[in-house]
């Protein structure tokens, strides 16, 4: 079965971590606030489980297929709880659960390939692949179930075991996932731990962990990498982005406005690869601003459980404060809110969908990752200027180019300094493709066969020529 770690060591009182509904600002649940001193026992059991789990690829594939079916069977309960703790509309939570099941099935069908190498010398070498051991998966609050599966599905398929730590803001659905999958996976193959820091830091630094996979902020990612350096564990870090959308001068503004708006505002802008900056030709700038602002002014914002809601709240109070601070700074520096720009009256962590114009290009709302329902739209006069601005931040996760001529757009996209570039759409990924950033956006590769091999190490067997 899938395991949750014990709440506390014997003889100690169990602490609790409360969980807030971002649509109301009220506490509605709690989980154990586990301390780092449980990790020795948890990782010890994970290592012992690994010895059996790694030995039978066929049994692993069958277990992952069973896990996918269990997720689908519990989809309604998982989605509803996910919306309660994360805030996104219920339809988006259902999509997240479906993506989780699909990812489990995808990796259940992958297997590493043995390769024979002959280089002219007597004999030959055969390259095989072996799992690493226990993996630490540290997950953020924007897609807590989907990103957990993006880490544990390839790790488990490769023959590793996993210790999974969700964000303290969104631990409930992950704990429920544990009970849902209790009959699909052997004991201690996947263990869920919940709690505040320093639980995550100690997990990353634990000598029994062989791979740390983390999604979150750049400062925390650097701290995770430093912690994992002590036991020389492998690291995979997805550290967010500040994706630019570059509109060319032949773009059909009305034709792309809906796609561009949702590429920026889906999940209330809390998507690492969302559009976070738009660069529009100067002659089209006003039309682009108004097209996006009209959608921002009319989209239905509310609790995620309301079927009419298209945009929910910001997930947590600290992130809401950051979004508000960035917008206030931009407005103070001369920007204008064509839509939004404020917190609406009432309970919950809501911020009005905001489209900014006249934004200074060096404003933090442009150069930093907002991770909220805020979109600056900036004019450019030459294509070289637009490409330079798009590449002009420390991030390099994704980017997109929008044009009536896809070939022309692709030529511009090839100049973007990022891991993924889209033409006339944004933030769409296949389970079979790699996902990685450049610069401060991360280290390592997730997704597709690359994600599987990231959880394996080569093992070479050399045989002399038989005589």
From TrEMBL:
Residues 15-452 form the Aldehyde dehydrogenase domain. The active site is at 238. InterPro entries: Ald_DH/histidinol_DH (IPR016161), Ald_DH_C (IPR016163), Ald_DH_CS_CYS (IPR016160), Ald_DH_CS_GLU (IPR029510), Ald_DH_N (IPR016162), Aldehyde_DH_dom (IPR015590). Gene3D superfamilies: Aldehyde Dehydrogenase, Chain A, domain 1, Aldehyde Dehydrogenase, Chain A, domain 2. Keywords: Oxidoreductase. PROSITE patterns: ALDEHYDE_DEHYDR_CYS (PS00070), ALDEHYDE_DEHYDR_GLU (PS00687). SUPFAM superfamilies: ALDH-like. It holds the Pfam family Aldedh. PANTHER family: ALDEHYDE DEHYDROGENASE-RELATED. Belongs to the aldehyde dehydrogenase family. This is Aldehyde dehydrogenase. The lineage of its organism: Bacteria, Bacillati, Actinomycetota, Actinomycetes, Kitasatosporales.
